[in-house]
Specification:
The chain contains six helices and 13 strands. With 260 residues, it is an alpha+beta fold. The termini are far apart.
Amino acid sequence: MQEWIEHCVDENAHIISITETKLTDRNAIGLMNSIYKIYTSNFTPYTDRQHAASLGTALLVYEKLQPHIHDIKTIPGTAICIDFFFPKNNKMRIISVYLPTNHKQLCERTQTKVFEWYLEAKHHNWNIIILGDFNANLNRDKKFPLFVNLSNANATSLLDFHNITSPTWIGPSAQSQIDDIWCNQELLLDLEKPIITDAEYITNSDHRIISTRWDTELQTSRGPRNKRRKRKIFQYEKIDSKKWGNSHQKSYQNLINGQI
């Protein structure tokens, strides 16, 4: 985790999705650091014999962006949704997903809920980014429910839009493009072409890193606060003829002495 955070800092990354975290509420506490706040969606077993397997997803948020968080929703073990309300009515919903292959009902429920989150944000005219491990390939799994629903609702895969065919997961005997970033069409041209980076010397993962850039013109560093200057207020209504005469005489004397 330390090496991953160092890599994110070097890349000047502000919002990061990670999947297959295998975290529980207990061991997630050890992820605290001074640069990113880590918001997790951890799997909670609902039978005594069940274990987390590779479930879990999380979003790392740069410390200067945390005050802009408006709301957080989760589906335990498979999805987390964070709403950001930035200045100038710039509102963004980020959804990190991990769709499991060994929990069919959970996978189906997650796809349904993630699409509901998408439609809700779209109804409010917010920008939306959905990213993570879908365990499905858009070019191969044409009838995958979430892909079909997102496409029909005018969402677009960045990898498909930019015609990127490089695999995002490479196994011992197979490879596939199961990781992706989706967004609403209004945001599509504001996001730079994704870059795919091999993670072998970063986290030693068989999943590769997908990154893109969105310039929000948001200042992430704050300068010193400007304090208002003190100003003198003359309360003329509280002065009488005697005080006015004394003030006039004092001003005349200062003028003679060259003080004003």
